[in-house]
Amino acid sequence: MSIKKVLQYLAILIGLSILYFSSAQLGLLFSFQQTNATPIWPPSGLAFAAILLLGARVWPGIFLGAIWINTTIFLGQHLEMGPALFFATGISIGNTLEAVVGAWILKKFFQTSQLLDRPEHIIQFSIAASLSCLIASLVGTAIVCKAGTAPWVLFKHIWSNWWLGDVTSILTLTPVWVMWRYYPSIRWTGLLKLGEELFMLFGLFVIYQIVFGQALSNNPFHNRSFVFILILLWASIRFDPFKMTFFLFVTTILITWGTTKNASSLSLALLNKELLFTQAFLSTIALSFLSLSASLSWRGKEAEDIRQRLAEIVETASDIISIIGIDQKILYMNPAGRRALKIPLKGDISQTFANWYYPHWVRALMEAKGIAHTTQKDIWSGETTLLSQDGKEIPIWQIIITHRDENEKPTFFSTIARDLSEKKESESILRESKKKLSEAQKLSMVGQLASGVAHEINNPLQAIRGNLETMTLFLKEKGITDTEISEIISDTELAAHRCQQIVKDLLDLARPTTKKEWEKVRIEEALHEALMLTGTELNKEHVQIEQNISFPLPPVNGHHRELMQVFVNLILNATVAMTHADEKCLRISAFEEKGKLVIRFEDTGHGIGPDVLPHIFEPFFTTAYDDVSKNKGRGLGLSVCQRIIQSHHGEIKAEAQPDKGALFTVTLPI
């Protein structure tokens, strides 16, 4: 150990011994006349606090201070130096052990750093103090009787006074030292609170004058002590344990001073009774009101902690949480809500209204159902939509709760909303996946069917068509010109051709496209060839073509033949859709937009019904009829088109235009 630390240690011991002696002299000022009995013995509280705060290593300072004061007392009782020092040493050992053992019990079995935080800690503190004070009181009383300064018959009375005096000192004085040590951040701040504290001190002095004034000086203290209870009860409710220890300390000084000042007229028996009552009263109020103050303070702290934790939960929650006034003004919105609605995190929104963040079509619904329902039933929940400041609609599931005052009048609303965007997107992806799975299953079925049909049907169909051609030539050679037979042969050949086309479509639908076969395709050339191939049908139906193509168009990667097949299919579908239309016009446009090539086919036919539109690209789904055969269409053309466009990493869409026909849009990456 360095010299500096040794000197510091010695300074602590000397200072502690001086404080012990000085506090003992102060305690003797409150002793009853012609006795050394005092309702409170300050050195006990000081020694207990010193061991708690500085550790057992400072016990020599307590021991030296105890020898000093006890020797002085014995010398004052006319004992010689030798016996006085001897008896003083014995009592000082008891005084020192009282503090050391009490602090050891508290540290070993109970809490020390939070000594006055909770009622149970204060009870633990009082138990440790009560047990440790048995040592000093028993040892000290035995030595006093042995020294002859008191008769043995008074052992019980002396011991009880001694024990109560030490316990009272520890319960009323030690907390003052401990609170200053463990709660250095607590200060007497705030003008309003300072005024209340000064009023409390003033009240204590007024109560002192009432209790110990001239008018009541002849009445025993236990007949008027209840007045202090009333003001201390109020203080324990209003102040935390730290300030309560100070008020209890002041109360102890006032009661001790008043009791000793008015004790001169009491007999020895009444004096002992008054001493015991004063000590018991001081111990009781210290224990009771410290426990009450700690309990209330702890509950307040717990409530504040809960509020703080709730605030942290709300601030970090991913859901949108807000508080809305009765006038619909937003009083609070958590960061998640501000981020979702694109509101600055630090901006003031107290002058904004909640319905500003609802789309127009939602506002009326919320006022008619949401707010109205929660005002009557206290809670409403449902799926709705919010509108962010950038105009984006956010689907949410929202709960609105009404908060009321004691008169059941609504005061404000709280609302929790969960963003359903990801859920909606997941559901959309799931639906799309199911759709693709269904289509894949259909394509698998088509592939299996096509592989068998191609072999089993193509050969007989080819033979049928060959025989029909032979029959036609035979009739010409024989000069037979029967119109009815010619029509039968023509219809049969057309039916055979349709059967072969069905097989071809099935094979096209099931056949995958490989990227390594791709080439640079000029869309304007593919469109030109598609129009040439469909020219006969277009002329037959008297369809007018309007082209709006931005030349030159950038080429796309893909298959010229497959893209031309898509365009042919869309042109023929439009031609069929306009069979009975008054105006037959097909508008074809092609242009570049946002790095993509857009090709649009807009007809003036009967259009697409809303019940048909969701299924328009499904395999085997069709609403088209052939005017020649009166048979329903195959329902594979648009499915083949969609597969081809998707294999080109593009997109094909159909739109219903009421009273304007149908619009098909093909988008291809450049």
Overview of the molecule:
The longest helix has about 60 residues, at about 420-480. The chain has 18 helices and twelve strands. It is about 60% helix and about 15% strand. It has about 675 residues and is an alpha+beta fold. Strands 2-1-5-4-3 form a five-stranded antiparallel sheet. A five-stranded mixed sheet has the order 7-9-10-12-11. A two-stranded antiparallel ribbon has the order 6-8. A hairpin with a 5-residue loop joins strand 4 and strand 5. Helix 5 (about 120-145) packs antiparallel against helix 10 (about 270-315). Mean pLDDT is about 80; it is low at about 625-630. The chain has helices at about 5-30, 40-55, 60-75, 80-110, 120-145, 155-180, 190-210, 225-240, 240-260, 270-315, 335-340, 360-375, 420-480, 485-510, 525-535, 535-540, 560-575, 635-645; strands spanning about 320-325, 330-335, 380-385, 395-405, 410-420, 520, 545-550, 555-560, 585-595, 595-600, 650-655, 660-670.
Q: What secondary-structure arrangement, pairings included, does this model have?
A:
Blueprint: H1 3-28, H2 42-54, H3 59-76, H4 81-109, H5 119-147, H6 155-182, H7 191-212, H8 226-238, H9 241-261, H10 268-316, E1 320-325, E2 330-333, H11 335-340, H12 360-377, E3 379-387, E4 393-404, E5 410-419, H13 421-478, H14 483-510, E6 519-521, H15 523-533, H16 535-540, E7 544-549, E8 556-558, H17 560-577, E9 585-593, E10 596-602, H18 637-647, E11 651-657, E12 661-669
Parallel strand pairs: 7-9
Antiparallel strand pairs: 1-2, 1-5, 3-4, 4-5, 6-8, 9-10, 10-12, 11-12
Helix pairs in contact: 1-2, 1-3, 2-4, 2-6, 3-4, 4-5, 5-6, 5-10, 6-9, 6-10, 7-8, 7-9, 8-9, 8-10, 9-10, 13-14, 15-17, 17-18
